[in-house]
Amino acid sequence: MARIEDARKTFDKFDRNGDGFVTPAEFQQAMVEMGDRHYTVGLAEAIVRTRDANGDGVLTFEEFFEKAKDL
């Protein structure tokens, strides 16, 4: 249970506007704030695309957590 709670906290850091979705721009912003100053929106788009199960261009918590479980 703690693992899903940790994943939710991390997801919430990426979901900048709190709408339940992480856009590539939000993903990029979060990565820059975590110290990767060279993280581009293009790279974020590629990462989101690899994790976006339904192809809508954004990540839901479920999509985010599904990949986090593999780490």
TrEMBL record:
UniProt keyword annotation of Repeat present: yes
GO molecular function: calcium ion binding
UniProt-listed Gene3D superfamilies: EF-hand
SMART domains given in the database record: EFh
Keyword Metal-binding: yes
Pfam families the UniProt entry points to: EF-hand_7 (PF13499)
Keyword terms: Metal-binding, Repeat
Listed name of the protein: EF-hand domain-containing protein
